[in-house]
Amino acid sequence: MRLFFGLSLPPSAREATADYARRAAQAVPGRYALPDNHHITLAFLGEVEPARAGEAEAVLAACATAFPAPQVTIRGPAHFGREENAIFILRAAGEPPLAPLHDALVRTLQERRLPFDPGPFSPHVTLARHARLAGAEPPPFAPVRFCAVQAHLFLSARDAEGVLRYTPLASAPFMTDSPGNLGL
Ligand code: 2AM
């Protein structure tokens, strides 16, 4: 099974990214993701034996509980790759930043001998693949902000109609404030 860790978008943020994708599609041709699939990947595992999904869930739980819930801002459009055949994205940023959480997830996956993608981490929401941005003018995006109270273990799989869907298999809460870490 194909697994990854990520943040889901609350309805208000998802409506904003879905509305933006609809508007952007008028200006930027490409293969647009299902808005239901909009999310922020924290770390990508790839193929995992189903019997080990519980271990992946434990990695997520151990890491999420060690980090405070981030305030996430989804910012303006950008892309990865060549303008003629790009991954069209909205950049995202956490406060506190999401990179230490990504690093902890990858380190823990490695320690537990689970697979992981060692590639660079750049938080984003993927809007479209095979996007043709050369000569195109993506519309502006009004930033949206939300508090991510939990992270998810997602399954990436095709449904009965052959549509690729990202389904949360497990959720793990971030560190909750307690008198101890409020400095009281
Ligand atoms: P994304 O974060 O840019 O959308 C499932 O494949 C999800 O994991 C996708 O959302 C995908 O890209 C993300 N992902 C991260 N690294 C990946 C990799 N090496 N291969 C496939 N998907 C990857």
Polypeptide structure, described:
The chain has 184 residues and is of the alpha+beta class. The protein has one domain: Alpha-Beta Complex (Cyclic Phosphodiesterase, Chain: A). It is built from three helices and nine strands, in the order E-H-E-E-H-E-E-H-E-E-E-E. The protein has a five-stranded antiparallel sheet, with helices on one face. A hairpin with a 2-residue loop joins strand 4 and strand 5 (85-95). The structure holds adenosine-2'-monophosphate.
Question: What brief labels describe this structure?
Answer:
184 residues; alpha+beta; Cyclic Phosphodiesterase, Chain: A; 4-stranded antiparallel β-sheet; 3 helices; 23% helix; binds adenosine-2'-monophosphate
- Main beta sheet strand tally, sense and closure: 5 strands, antiparallel
What is the overall pLDDT average? 95
Distance between the termini: 45 Å
How many domains? The number is 1
Strand content: 35-45%
By oligomeric state, this entry counts as single chain
State the total count of DSSP E strands: 9
CATH architecture classification? Alpha-Beta Complex
Q: What is the CATH C-level name? A: Alpha Beta
Per CATH, the superfamily is Cyclic phosphodiesterase
- State the helix count: 3
CATH topology name, in short, is: Cyclic Phosphodiesterase, Chain: A
In which order are the strands of the major sheet placed? 2-6-5-4-7
Helix content range: 10-25%
**What sort of overall outline do the alpha carbons produce when their principal axes are compared?**
globular
Unreliable spans: none
